């Protein structure tokens, strides 16, 4: 009889435990929300999608572009034909050479590391040292028109300006936040502590550049029209002028490191070393090119002038030769110590 009572107590305790467990399961079922799990999965899928995201392919999407965006595309892709020396109407000839905007802004402005226009619209207005003021995207475009394109400014209200801005807006749509940084400007290089060695630059040019740009840097004309370029000239009368950013060794080296040789290098998988890009940039910029008037008016605050700007005046006593070919670290150190300004180019 005593054993039966012990067994009954154990049974009651076991039943109580089971009852509590069943109650807990019941409460969990009442409060469980399947959407919570799905939300986590969706968020994970969004992250993967961002990693797989690619900028728009302008050529593939031409049929679906609006008329204005499409006009902008042709203006930047075939600049000399539509707003340069080969434009049908004289009043449309704004650029002064036969380059296309897309000769430098690769993949029609979509390639990271080549001064891409992906996401560019939201970066403006922004302060620019060259004018010492806040500038609009239209101001930035006209900076290229006067320097890289060796021409004249587009009127802000011109159809061409509106179309180019519309194209940039189109490229900038739906860019994931975590992908924006890679499309901004040019990745930095480690600036060598020596001056440009023109002989080393020549060797790099002969090995990596001559096949596209030619012995004399004149580039390769388009086989169809014989006027625009498949591969642009790097110096000479039809190249960018001496007021362009590409005429600065550091800026040019950053572009070259991230993009050249063409179709062999990317910003995250370059072919050339920092030193090779640096020396070949100096070699390219050792040759003559069109002259831009009134360059002395650039950078009203001379302290903001990039150290590799090859034309004066400057806010220092370093020689024109050193400003053109380096070494640049001593100039950078001077600005840091004298003015508290950290220079990167």
Global morphology: globular
Here the CATH topology of the largest domain equals Cytochrome Bc1 Complex, Chain D, domain 2
Head-to-tail CA distance between termini? 97 Å
CATH first level of the largest domain: Mainly Alpha
Class by helix and strand content?
A: mainly alpha
Number of helices: 12
Radius of gyration: 30 Å
TL;DR?
The protein is mainly alpha-helical.
Q: Could you explain how this protein is built, in words?
A:
With 345 residues, this protein is mainly α. It folds into two domains: 62-183, Cytochrome Bc1 Complex, Chain D, domain 2 (Orthogonal Bundle); 186-345, Cytochrome c-like domain (Cytochrome Bc1 Complex, Chain D, domain 2). The chain is 43% helix and 3% strand. The protein has twelve helices and four strands, in the order αααααββαααββαααα. It has helices at 2-31, 34-52, 67-77, 79-83, 106-109, 137-146, 159-171, 198-213, 249-259, 274-284, 320-325, 329-339, and strands at residues 126-128, 133-135, 220-221, 229-231. The strands form two sheets. A two-stranded antiparallel ribbon has the order 1-2. The chain has a two-stranded antiparallel sheet with strand order 3-4. Strand 3 (220-221) and strand 4 (229-231) form a beta hairpin. Helix 9 (249-259) packs across helix 10 (274-284). The longest helix has 30 residues, at 2-31. The protein is globular.
């Amino acid at each position: 009889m005593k054993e039966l009572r012990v067994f009954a107590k154990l049974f009651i305790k076991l039943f109580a435990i089971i009852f509590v467990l069943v109650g807990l399961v019941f409460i969990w079922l009442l409060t469980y929300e399947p959407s919570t799990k799905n939300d986590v999965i969706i968020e994970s899928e969004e992250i993967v999608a961002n990693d797989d995201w690619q900028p728009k392919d302008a050529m593939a999407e031409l049929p679906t572009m609006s008329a204005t965006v499409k006009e902008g595309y042709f203006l930047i892709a075939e600049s000399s034909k539509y707003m340069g020396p080969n434009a049908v109407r004289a009043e449309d000839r704004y650029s002064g050479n036969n380059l296309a905007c897309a000769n430098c802004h690769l993949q029609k402005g979509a390639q990271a590391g080549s001064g891409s226009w992906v996401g560019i619209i939201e970066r403006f207005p922004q302060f620019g040292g060259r004018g010492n003021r806040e500038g609009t995207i239209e101001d930035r475009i006209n900076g290229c028109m006067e320097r890289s394109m060796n021409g004249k400014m587009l009127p802000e209200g011109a159809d061409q300006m509106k179309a180019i801005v519309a194209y940039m807006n189109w490229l900038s749509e739906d860019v994931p936040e975590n992908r924006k940084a890679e499309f901004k400007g040019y990745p930095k290089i480690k600036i060598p502590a020596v001056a440009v060695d023109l002989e080393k630059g020549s060797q790099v040019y002969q090995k990596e550049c001559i096949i596209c740009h030619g012995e004399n840097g004149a580039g390769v004309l388009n086989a169809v029209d014989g006027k625009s370029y498949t591969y642009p000239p790097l110096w000479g009368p039809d190249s960018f002028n001496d007021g362009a950013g590409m005429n600065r060794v550091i800026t040019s080296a950053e572009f070259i490191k991230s993009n050249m040789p063409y179709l062999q290098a990317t910003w995250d998988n370059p072919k050339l070393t920092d030193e090779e890009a640096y020396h070949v940039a100096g070699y390219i910029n050792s040759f003559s090119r069109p002259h831009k008037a009134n360059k002395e008016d650039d950078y009203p605050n001379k302290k903001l002038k990039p150290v590799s700007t090859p034309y004066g005046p400057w806010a220092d006593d370093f020689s024109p030769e050193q400003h053109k070919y380096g070494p640049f670290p001593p100039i950078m150190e001077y600005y840091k110590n004298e003015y508290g300004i950290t220079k990167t180019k």
